[in-house]
Amino acid sequence: MTAIAIPVPSRIRRTVGTDEPAWVRRTLIGLALAFLTLFLFVPLISVFYEALKKGVDVYLAAITEPDAVAAIQLTLTVAAIAVPLNLIFGIAAAWAIAKFEFRGKNLLITLIDLPFSVSPVVSGLIYVLIFGLQGWLGPWLAENDIKIIFAVPGIVLATIFVTVPFIARELIPLMQAQGTEEEEAAVVLGANGWQTFFRVTLPNVKWGLLYGTILCNARAMGEFGAVSVVSGHIRGSTNTLPLHVEILYNEYNFAAAFAVASLLALLALVTLALKTFVESRNKQYQENADEH
Amino acid sequence: MRKLHSFKQHSVLPGFNLALGFTLVYLSLIVLIPLSAAFIRTSALTWPEFWAVVTTPRVVASYRLTFGASFAAALLNAIFGLLVAWVLVRYHFPGKRLVDALVDLPFALPTAVAGIALTALYAGNGWIGQFFEPLGIKIAFTPVGVFVALTFIGLPFVVRTVQPVLEDIESELEEAAATLGATRLQTFSRVIFPTLFPALMTGFALAFARAIGEYGSVIFIAGNMPMISEITPLLIITKLEQYDYTGATALAVVMLVISFVMLLIINLLQWWSRRSAAI
Predict the structure, then answer these.
(1) ipTM of this predicted complex?
(2) I need a labelling partner for A81 at 20 to 30 A (CA). Which of B37, B80, B179, B227 fits?
(3) Residue A28's Cα: distance from chain center in Å?
């Protein structure tokens, strides 16, 4: 057989035995889209519809009143502390796990993933058991007038707990796939550890790192259950954006609740857009790397 | 140094001790010590005391709702997740890339936002609830509402575990089946589905595990009536607000043990998926 590529018109290809008839295809696409519409698209659209239902003035008033602004500031502050700490942790964990062979590695990976399988409510509760008034350190903290539970430090701790795995689990498989040859070459050529990391490892994993950071940030800003347990819901001081949504909703102030919720929905959409962009860049990067 | 070498293979790369040391300290302070607090606190109870706290009728009713609704939601997601993954991998339609990106929305959208949006939609006067109201079906503020919220939360898991496996299936297999006279349905049920099955089970288990612990989206839509529409995580919060730390912690330990069992099952399923993908 000579290898001559014969262009096959798509209409003929369709009759091959590994394709479904058109009506089956259309029905399946229709069913899938109907399911997604009911459970995904309509809820997303309804957030913005409900937020703007009473007009732009009501919307703007809801997101600029002092308690809402305080909630925005607190949410940004918490993320600004939790995300960098988990970034450092993710890099350290990935360096140890991906670049070295040692015993107990699989156990360590499972432990890093642990917060994903713990209920958010339990994640908050365990900090109350340590730092709360009845907790292990409670009496000592009260004596020294340090507040952790029902204050910002507790919110930060609970947020760190629920977002611990994001960056590490993104980096570990990526750095494992890259191997250690390039780093070893750098070290043999006289680079120190930090130079090796910043000049060799980091450029190779930058998109994965960014991707993990984006997801970590989205969860840090949106966490509800864990933060709800440790926050104490004090308006203007320990209320994050998601908790502010709950308070407004429970006061039957629906327009304001959805207005604040729409900010979080926008954050989610920006996260998804960045994620899609990073994924396509990552794919391109890997295809280029494969060619060379 | 000798001791270190016995558990770590030699490498010319620097930074192992610093990186592993930091990882272990951070993980201990943030995750392991706080989690152990729940177990240590509960160990103050005797076994019969513990058992009495975690099996009162109200608590048992909350288990039934939490597990029942989580199971039903994960099952619906298994069926439709498979369908969505199939449609995204095999077919072309306008807006496909947008749909693909939006499947991850439940991962990115804060649960409180999902909760109030679903409640507004599925309430008796909501966009979707109004069609069910005349039929005498109430969704929001009933156990069905819990099921709706948990379906939303678990939606991406099955799609995202099945999708890559489906992409990797060799077309030769399907062509061989077709050449040997199999109908399309036979090819799907005998060739494609068995290949996807481990990934499907993994996705189901991930969605189920996530649903069991879910709190934020459920409390708005559930109505939270004791014995009827009260989930276990909410019961933990209720006990905490009544300063019943022992009761809250005992329930937390039950939830933690279930999470650990689920984690073990998911790890086994993933191992199974990888092994069957390798063959």
Answers:
(1) 0.90
(2) B37
(3) 31
